[in-house]
Design goal:
Blueprint: E1 4-9, H1 15-21, H2 27-30, E2 35-39, E3 52-56, E4 59-61, H3 62-74, E5 77-81, H4 83-87, H5 99-107, E6 116-120, E7 130-132, H6 139-150, H7 162-168, H8 193-196, H9 213-222, H10 227-238
Parallel strand pairs: 1-2, 1-3, 3-5, 5-7
Antiparallel strand pairs: 4-6
């Protein structure tokens, strides 16, 4: 019997789920190997019997806490899908402002969404078995994850920074040009897509183990960035990570 898979969405743009659907050439073969029972972007079925659960999105409401716990109880393997689920994502930015302030700024009034809470990562609510990082995820990496699970092989993420991929492509370093970039401390696996197109790496795949955050901070300060500016760059995706005391 093929393993049953559920794909679930919480507070997010659902772009990671769209990346899965962008595997249009591979999907016909994939669905012969797995049984998708819950995936609102793709099917109407809402099956509650699944072995593997992918969760996209962060937790921003009280009601979502219990939903995530129910998914965890049913799933043998739970995978945080994308930056919002893994890191809290850009949704974490609201945690640094008074609730009435950001509600008024974004929605024009502060008396709505009374059940909203500070943004939480999925791992803040339940144990997470695997992480598939990125904003959005890399669809090829998703495919490798699923194939690994089918073979009972635990998928592994790169243990080196985006800088390695950037250098291998022959890209001119953005930091050397005086621009900000977090590629030297961010986990690789994206193919350095942002720096390749001359845009800064914002750290959407999370901080890679062993990174020298303080060194990057000092280099960026030498380039003219203030501590507050550097802190804000890290907060775009990594506001809940245990690195804030280094900034």
């Amino acid at each position: 019997m093929p393993p049953k898979i559920g794909v679930f969405s919480f507070t997010s743009c659902e772009g990671c789920q769209l990346q899965i659907l962008n595997l249009e050439d591979e999907i016909p073969t994939l669905i012969e190997q797995i049984d998708i029972v819950n995936f609102r972007e793709a099917i109407d079925e809402k099956g509650q019997d699944y072995e593997i659960a992918f969760i996209e999105g962060s937790v921003t409401r009280e009601s979502e806490i219990e939903e995530v716990k129910r998914i965890r109880e049913r799933a043998r393997v739970l995978i945080a899908l994308g930056a919002c689920s893994h890191l809290g994502g850009v949704n974490v930015l609201k945690n640094f402002h008074p609730q009435g302030s950001w509600l008024s700024t974004v929605y024009g009034r502060s008396d709505i969404f009374s059940d909203t809470i500070p943004t939480k990562r999925i791992k803040d609510v339940v144990p997470v078995d695997l992480v598939l990082p990125g904003c959005p995820i890399d669809k090829r990496e998703f495919l490798r994850f699923v194939q690994g699970l089918l073979l009972n092989i635990k998928p592994r993420l790169p243990d080196y920074p985006v800088c390695v991929e950037c250098r291998s492509k022959g890209n001119v370093c953005l930091v050397e040009e005086g621009k900000w970039c977090l590629g030297s401390v961010t986990r690789a696996g994206c193919g350095a897509i942002c720096p390749t197109y001359r845009d800064a790496c914002a750290g959407c795949r999370g901080i890679v183990e062993g990174s020298n955050i303080e060194s990057l901070r000092n280099i960026l300060m030498e380039k003219g960035y203030s501590k507050e500016e550097i802190r804000d760059k890290f907060r775009i995706f990594n506001g809940l990570e245990e690195i804030q005391n280094l900034l």
